[in-house]
Structure to design on (299 residues):
């Protein structure tokens, strides 16, 4: 048997095909029993999928109230500002108040349907440019396919919620990607970004640890700083400065999730002058201090 090494023989056709790469990165997937779910003004640098098995959960975005129902999946893109609550419990006057626990097979769901929220959620990223879609709350109806997947995923999470087998990982990724096909128009907008803006987005990602000036950035695509700033705002619906800050805080969240770096180390690595400047920016964007986020108490 001969091993064919000629790269030109991979595709026997002369017609070129252009594919779009999705760099799906799973951050967490959990199924919880919530007694309190009062989270005001949250902003996170990753995608979220929410589904509640029973009624009572509510999401507020831009003064619009979404009463969550079991027949609907709720998709929240990165950097969307929103609040959540469980309407069947008395509300606190201020602050974040969350109380709950993992759901296990020994829980009789009928005993908790009226006093707690059965809450399934997934956090993930898709990579550039798909983590830069417009913020908002997207709703998808639960089809038979989604219903079957939700039953499988929530059942497995009640048995094992840490060391997932390959089958679970594949089905979870297929579940997310099927959901994304229903929000494809929003994602497709991200692929039509001006090539100059996309070049700078990639440049920022590579140099996220540096202090980048508008002049330095604009010079990469031979434009005047003010002209490029206007172009970037038109294309991305966000100022260049705020975009860079968002990406730095997104990277900081990755460090807190995946490493043991201290707040000072993360601040230094991302080009902030000191911990206090970093903390101010972090709280402005996420609504949480780095210390709270790092400890995962925001969950």
């Amino acid at each position: 048997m001969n091993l064919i090494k000629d790269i030109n023989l991979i595709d026997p056709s002369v017609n070129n095909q252009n594919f779009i790469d999705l760099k799906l990165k799973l951050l967490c997937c959990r199924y919880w029993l919530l007694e309190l779910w009062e989270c005001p003004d949250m902003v996170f640098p990753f995608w979220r999928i929410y589904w509640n098995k029973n009624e009572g959960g509510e999401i507020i975005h831009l003064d619009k109230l979404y009463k969550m129902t079991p027949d609907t999946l709720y998709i929240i893109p990165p950097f969307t500002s929103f609040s959540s609550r469980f309407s069947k419990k008395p509300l606190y006057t201020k602050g974040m108040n969350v109380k709950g626990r993992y759901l296990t097979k020994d829980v009789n769901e009928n005993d908790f349907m009226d006093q707690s929220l059965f809450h399934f959620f997934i956090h993930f990223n898709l990579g550039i440019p798909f983590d830069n879609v417009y913020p908002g709350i997207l709703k998808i109806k639960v089809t038979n396919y989604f219903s079957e997947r939700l039953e499988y995923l929530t059942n497995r999470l009640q048995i094992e919620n840490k060391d997932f087998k390959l089958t679970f990982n594949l089905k979870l990724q297929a579940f997310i990607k099927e959901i994304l096909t229903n929000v494809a128009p929003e994602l497709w907008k991200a692929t039509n970004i001006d090539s100059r803006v996309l070049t700078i987005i990639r440049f920022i990602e590579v140099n996220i640890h540096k202090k980048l000036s508008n002049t330095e950035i604009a010079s990469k695509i031979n434009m005047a700083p003010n002209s490029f700033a206007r172009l970037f705002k038109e294309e991305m619906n966000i100022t260049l400065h705020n975009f860079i800050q968002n990406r730095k805080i997104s990277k900081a969240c990755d460090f807190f999730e995946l490493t043991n770096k201290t707040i000072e180390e993360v601040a230094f690595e991302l080009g902030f002058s000191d911990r206090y400047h970093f903390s101010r920016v972090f709280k402005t964007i996420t609504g949480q201090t780095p210390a709270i986020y790092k400890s995962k108490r925001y969950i």
